[in-house]
Design brief:
Distance between the termini: 30 Å
Order of helices and strands: HHHH
Structural class: mainly alpha
Helix content: 40-55%
Strand content: under 5%
Shape: globular
Number of helices: 4
Number of strands: 0
């Protein structure tokens, strides 16, 4: 998967989660400060990405610095495992652990 694919998937996930169009994301855009995400919307975004691109999220590996900007989040996604056939059940369980 390439950076542009991750950014496109991120735009789609954020559009769904924020219920408004999110397009033209650039690397320096800050997820919390510029897009006004909070922990709930971040969790929903992770779940959407688990479903759409097979992102595998290990809650023990999460670091707030990975969610600073579009670039840092893209690096996080590209450095981790992707499971193209991940099931919605496994996405929900790992996301629920993240929320705890």
């Amino acid at each position: 998967m390439e950076r542009k694919d991750v950014v496109q998937a991120l735009e789609t996930a954020l559009t769904d989660v924020l219920e408004r169009p999110v397009t033209g994301l650039r690397g320096e855009i800050r997820l919390f400060d510029d897009l006004h995400l909070d922990s709930t919307t971040m969790l929903e975004m992770l779940m959407a990405l688990e479903d759409s691109i097979g992102l595998v999220v290990d809650p023990e590996e999460l670091d707030v610095d990975d969610f600073e900007s579009v670039d840092t989040f893209t690096d996080f996604v590209l450095s981790g495992p992707l499971a193209p056939s991940s099931s919605p059940a496994s996405a929900s369980s790992s996301a629920a652990t993240f929320a705890a």
